[in-house]
């Protein structure tokens, strides 16, 4: 970490996050969020999903706009490739969550980031989802994330940055730990 | 009905140390102990247990370790004789075989019901320790009935376990010590490690606690620690007090053949699931250890000690098997025992005064219980300093709280 004339600005409002942590510790009901997505089948393996509103801080909230996602399978899967695959969206989610964490932790620790890129790979044996081999799982065998970070910080500092980001990442937790999923018919 | 000024509950090191402080100030008191002096050390520890701290760190008010093995680590049985000796030295007014049922407020302070007696006191000091009950995760309900389960409080030695594989849950000092001991008995051990604290047993020729004390880490105060809740919940460091100082970290266990897996998450249909975050968990522990060793090195350099000390070094990074298992079928017969090395909780269930936070823990400010004037608690992790977690922490803790209590008694008309 170097001493610079201007304060570190990675664009993360750390004081607001720390205030929120204090306020919500005193009012835990407000800390209960529910994230939502809605999905409509188009054709084949193509679906269209939207993300618009969520519940949190004791109220219904709305994103600035409705976010739209098409998901599909690729042509080599005998499909139409109208969008990224759902598993690729999971990798996008993980990369986005970890990168956001890198920025937040860097802000908190006074490290000025110049650039951050994350390359993420998930290995998968598709005999699992094809039901061809009961020993093979449906999901990823392993996921690797490679961060390239340009910042005024030592390699140790950057390693600690990335480690702390994982420690407090929602999607990292979703992917590495078991989560209850309940699917029902309306 | 027995009237006294102070009731101290628990005749462990903290209760006895407080008794000594009260005697020094001529404050009339009793110490109520459900068993014999040092009851927990007699009845709830396994025989091969040794203190994490070297003997030279065994200090109590008026009495320091004076044996011939200052660099050794005291076995549980010796802790018992040491504390029994201290109780005699301090002439502590201990009533043994006296179990407290209820403590509640009363007009002149407090009413303590113990056995068939009722004590009335102006102040009460809770010194029943931090490890009265095991903290067992809720998933224990999903363990198949074919698997034996136990906790460190009932564990005595590997011979009490059936043959077969053992799953040790928890990478604390207890977890790594028992994993090593059980694996050496010929029962293959799998250790499920969540967040853990790694430290070398010795560094640059000194015990790690020498460094923790010298650098001021042990003296760090509760009101100066950034994340106090986290500090109070840190697992105990992965250390062992074996006669030959040795590392007991995950690398050592792996070299001995223990299989390390991630934090136990869930048991579904008899299948245990482990976290895929083990790599980062180990990285975080290594980083934390290296930060402290760097602090120790800077401290030594600043004091011109580098010439007389062996050179600085770092333990090897924790090796994690990238293909380590994420699941284990507990119903397959591979695992015959689960040992829950998942921490402990105090037992303050007999305290009938609303002094708890929303998680059920006593709310206190450095041992002064909130909203209950005259009520104090001792012997909890990082009660007042990081040293509070260890035996010698009672020195400063009882000095400060003894002063506070004395002042409380003086300013409040009986």
How does this model look, in words?
The complex is a heterodimer of chains A (186) and B (414). Chain A folds into 2 domains: 12-84, 2-Layer Sandwich (GMP Synthetase, Chain A, domain 3), CATH 3.30.300; 85-176, GMP Synthetase, Chain A, domain 3 (2-Layer Sandwich), CATH 3.30.300. In chain A, helix 2 packs across helix 3. Chain A has helices at residues 14-26, 86-108, 155-167, 170-176; strands spanning 38-43, 46-56, 59-71, 113-123, 142-151. Chain A is of the alpha+beta class and 186 residues long. Chain A has 4 helices and 5 strands. In chain A, a hairpin with a 2-residue loop joins strand 2 and strand 3. Chain B has 414 residues and is of the alpha/beta class. Chain B has 2 domains: 2-132 and 346-411, FAD/NAD(P)-binding domain, CATH 3.50.50; 136-340, FAD/NAD(P)-binding domain (3-Layer(bba) Sandwich). Helices cover 26% and strands 21% of the residues of chain B. Chain B is built from 9 helices and 25 strands. Chain B has helices at residues 13-24, 39-43, 76-89, 173-184, 208-214, 228-233, 250-256, 278-302, 393-411; strands at residues 2-3, 6-9, 29-32, 59-60, 63-64, 94-95, 100-106, 109-114, 117-121, 123-126, 133-134, 148-150, 165-169, 189-193, 202-203, 206-207, 259-262, 264-268, 271-274, 327-329, 335-340, 344-345, 364-365, 368-369, 375-377. Chain B starts with a strand and ends with a helix. The model of chain B has no long low-confidence stretch (mean pLDDT 95).
Give the key terms:
heterodimer, A: 186 residues, alpha+beta, GMP Synthetase, Chain A, domain 3, 2 domains, three-stranded antiparallel beta sheet, two-stranded antiparallel ribbon, 5 strands, 30% helix, globular, B: 414 residues, alpha/beta, FAD/NAD(P)-binding domain, 9 helices, 25 strands, 26% helix, 21% strand
């Amino acid at each position: 970490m170097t001493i610079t004339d201007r304060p570190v600005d990675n664009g993360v409002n750390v004081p607001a996050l720390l205030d929120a942590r204090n306020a919500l510790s005193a009012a835990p009901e407000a800390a209960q969020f529910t994230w939502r997505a809605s999905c409509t089948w188009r054709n084949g393996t193509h679906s269209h999903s939207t993300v618009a509103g969520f519940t949190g801080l004791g109220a219904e909230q709305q994103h600035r706009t409705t976010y739209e996602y098409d998901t599909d399978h690729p042509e080599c899967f005998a499909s139409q490739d109208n969008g990224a695959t759902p598993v690729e969206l999971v990798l996008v989610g993980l990369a986005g969550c970890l990168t956001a964490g890198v920025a937040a932790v860097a802000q908190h620790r006074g490290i000025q980031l110049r650039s951050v890129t994350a390359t993420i790979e998930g290995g998968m044996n598709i005999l699992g989802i094809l039901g061809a081999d009961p020993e093979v799982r449906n999901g990823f065998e392993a996921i690797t994330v490679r961060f390239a970070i340009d910042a005024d910080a030592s390699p140790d500092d950057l390693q600690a940055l990335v480690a702390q980001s994982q420690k407090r990442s929602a999607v990292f937790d979703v992917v590495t730990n078991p989560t209850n999923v309940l699917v029902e018919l309306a | 009905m027995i009237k006294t000024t102070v009731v101290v509950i628990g005749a462990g090191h903290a209760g006895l140390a407080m008794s000594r402080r009260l005697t020094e100030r001529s404050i009339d008191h009793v110490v109520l102990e459900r068993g014999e002096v040092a009851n927990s050390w007699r009845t709830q520890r396994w025989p091969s247990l040794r203190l994490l701290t070297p003997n030279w760190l065994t200090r109590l008010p008026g009495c320091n370790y004076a044996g011939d093995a200052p660099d050794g680590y005291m076995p549980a049985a010796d802790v018992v004789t040491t504390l029994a000796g201290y109780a005699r030295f301090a002439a502590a007014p201990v009533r043994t075989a006296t179990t407290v049922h209820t403590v509640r407020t009363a007009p002149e302070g407090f009413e303590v019901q113990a056995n068939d007696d009722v004590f009335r006191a102006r102040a009460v000091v809770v010194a029943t320790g931090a490890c009265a009950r095991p903290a067992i995760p809720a998933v224990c309900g999903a363990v198949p009935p074919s698997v034996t389960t136990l906790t460190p409080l009932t564990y005595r030695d590997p011979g009490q376990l059936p043959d077969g594989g053992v799953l040790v849950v928890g990478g604390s000092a207890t977890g790594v010590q028992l994993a090593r001991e059980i694996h050496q008995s010929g029962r293959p051990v799998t250790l499920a490690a969540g967040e853990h604290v790694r430290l070398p047993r010795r560094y640059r020729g000194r015990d790690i606690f020498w460094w923790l004390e010298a650098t001021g880490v042990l003296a760090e105060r509760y009101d100066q620690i950034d994340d106090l809740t986290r500090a109070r919940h840190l697992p105990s460091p992965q250390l062992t007090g074996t006669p030959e100082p040795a590392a007991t970290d995950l690398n050592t266990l792996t070299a001995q053949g223990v299989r390390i897996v991630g934090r136990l998450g869930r048991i579904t249909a008899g299948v245990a699931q482990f976290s895929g975050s083990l790599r980062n968990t180990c990285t975080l522990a290594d980083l934390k250890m290296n930060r402290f060793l760097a602090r120790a090195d800077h401290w030594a350099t600043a004091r011109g000690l580098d010439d007389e000390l062996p050179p600085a070094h770092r333990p090897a990074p924790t090796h994690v098997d990238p293909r380590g298992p994420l699941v284990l079928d507990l119903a397959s017969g591979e695992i015959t025992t689960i040992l829950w090395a998942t921490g402990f909780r105090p037992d303050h269930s007999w305290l009938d005064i609303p002094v708890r936070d929303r998680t059920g823990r006593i709310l206190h400010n450095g041992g002064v219980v909130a909203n209950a004037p005259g009520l104090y608690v001792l012997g909890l992790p990082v009660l007042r300093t990081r040293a509070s977690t260890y035996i010698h922490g009672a020195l400063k803790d009882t000095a400060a709280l003894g002063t506070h209590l004395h002042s409380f008694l003086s300013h409040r008309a009986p």
